[in-house]
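haha ok so turns out i had the wrong file open the whole time. this is the CORRECT one, sorry everyone. sequence first:
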Amino acid sequence: MPNNGWLRLLFILVLGQALILGQALVWPDRIGRTLPWPATPLNARFVAALYCMGVVTALLAILAPTYAAVRVPLVLIFSLTAGLLVLTLPHLGDFNANTFPYRWVISYTLDAVVTGAVLWRLRGRGRSQSARTPIGAVLATYATVAGAAGLVMLMAPSFAVRHWPWGLTPILAQVYSIFFLTFALGGWLIARESRAEGAWIYVTANLAVSVMVIGVSAAYPERFTAGVPTWTWYTIWVAAACAMAVTLAAVVTSSRRRPETAPVSP
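then structure:
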């Protein structure tokens, strides 16, 4: 099934939303225009780096030729937007009429409803029939680490704050948890399929976000606490970047292979 015009339009809208928050990578003071909770410049740029994964994903999805290539990104958009919406709802009482995050709630409600409807309509389609690629173990490991971190941040945000390498609030820890759980979901989905056509967007976007997180972290050395949390932080993200680079190379190699042409019967 081809990646048709209305799917591309959906990803154009996702790109616009991701850019609104992604601009905080350059202008961290602008994060307050959209994010409902206050964030320091380091946290603002970290949030922006996470949203830049959405920027990369949407750009590649707009260019992708088939639905098989964008199926997992659609699942992840639904997971992320629905997760952030559900996380926000219990905190709506913390806002007043002037600070109520109308745009945040409306946009994520629409995103979750629309992407959910698209996935339901196209359910069962877009599963690649190409040969498996040797990336399943790497992505499963990546997904397990991201999922474990996400669960801890979601279920025990105070514990996560105490062990985070820089200053963090519990609500931001839970916001980050939704992204980590989304990374994990994508890794598990693609590890199960392990096919080049459906993997290249996810792997490229995760490589990009890993590099951006390392860059953002390196720009604020004074904000990091000395010791194990900081060393663990850099070790995990450098390992993630290396793993995604190796995986992307494997995906590209796999996509270039062509099945042998069957002999033509006389």
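The chain has one domain: 5-254.
again sry for the mixup
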